[in-house]
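User: Just a sanity check before I run the rest of the batch. Below are the structure tokens for the first item. I only need the designed sequence back.
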């Protein structure tokens, strides 16, 4: 049984808490914390959580907390994780894991020195759909993959966590990481020759939208875009020499459609994807499994992959001259 403490009581915490309560034989939420003690108390009362705290450090001192789930804006992730690790707690942290790779390296170094588990909770990395997509590709049903497109966009620029540089805002770190991870999972093991991109900046200096192109060493390519002012179709499309695989919703795959390679493609197969709860259960169960096995990294999202994604987003933001959160002090 893993005792979970939730750091941050916003929307994503409200989504995850019921899932945690769904598996009483594997995990139990024993505490919740927010900078506003009243908000933490209300959250705890809503989900029947026995204790609430008005500071994260107070919760990290709770001996019943084994794993801290970090659900704050990503501008605060590094400091919260460092504090949790220094108090001997394992950590599962929402995406984006940190603002940049340097911050993540600091977190991983501390976790390694303390022999503590840390993982990035980007749910698509843990879902069964990941294997389903990779199985179609490896089966040869669509032949050799030549091109991948993926996008994700919502009308979210009005939200402070997206609009404000101090909160590490922008489309890239919030929604752009999903299509980026989608492509990297589909091309698992493939070398990358180049990553380039462009963006449209807001007056406050974050990216409202962006486009990214990846050239792989096997001559395949990927084109990605993310958006914070409009809703997109959210599709991931994997084009091959013998067919096409269309994934509905790269943020939470709902359906796989396999098409022939005909000039007028024929739909050959449709697979609906269902979850036992809502899709977040896989990252939580995997974290519990990893902790029980004494692992420091989760095999679904090892530290090397979290760092790889952050190094790409760092490089892109450097080209775009976008600094966020702690970087603004440099």
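Assistant: Here's the designed sequence for the first item:
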């Amino acid at each position: 049984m893993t005792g979970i403490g939730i750091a941050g009581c916003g929307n994503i915490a409200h989504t995850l808490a019921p899932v945690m309560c769904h598996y009483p034989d594997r995990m139990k939420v024993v505490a919740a914390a927010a900078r506003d003690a009243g908000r933490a108390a209300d959250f705890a009362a809503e989900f029947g959580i026995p204790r609430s705290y008005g500071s994260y450090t107070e919760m990290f001192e709770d001996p019943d907390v084994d794993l801290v789930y970090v659900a704050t804006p990503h501008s605060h992730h590094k400091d919260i994780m460092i504090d949790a690790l220094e108090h001997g707690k394992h950590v599962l942290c929402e995406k984006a894991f940190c603002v940049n790779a340097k911050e993540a390296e600091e977190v991983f170094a501390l976790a390694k020195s303390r022999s503590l588990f840390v993982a990035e909770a980007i749910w698509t990395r843990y879902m069964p759909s990941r294997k389903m997509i990779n199985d179609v590709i490896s089966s040869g049903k669509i032949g050799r993959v030549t091109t991948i497109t993926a996008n994700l966009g919502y009308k979210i620029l009005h939200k402070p966590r997206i609009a404000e540089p101090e909160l590490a805002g922008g489309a890239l770190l919030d929604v752009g990481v999903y299509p980026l991870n989608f492509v990297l999972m589909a091309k698992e093991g493939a070398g990358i020759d180049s990553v380039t991109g462009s963006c449209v900046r807001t007056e406050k200096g974050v990216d409202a939208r962006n486009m990214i192109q990846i050239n792989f060493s096997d001559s395949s390519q990927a084109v990605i875009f993310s958006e914070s002012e409009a809703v997109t179709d959210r599709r991931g499309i994997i084009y091959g020499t013998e067919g096409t695989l269309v994934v509905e919703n790269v943020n939470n795959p709902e359906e796989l459609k396999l098409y022939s390679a005909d000039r007028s493609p024929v739909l050959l197969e449709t697979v609906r994807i269902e979850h036992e709860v809502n899709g977040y259960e896989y990252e939580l169960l995997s974290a519990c499994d990893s902790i029980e096995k004494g692992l420091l990294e989760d095999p679904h999202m090892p530290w090397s992959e979290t760092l790889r994604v952050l190094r790409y987003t760092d490089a892109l933001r450097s080209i775009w001259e976008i600094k966020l959160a702690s970087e603004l002090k440099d």
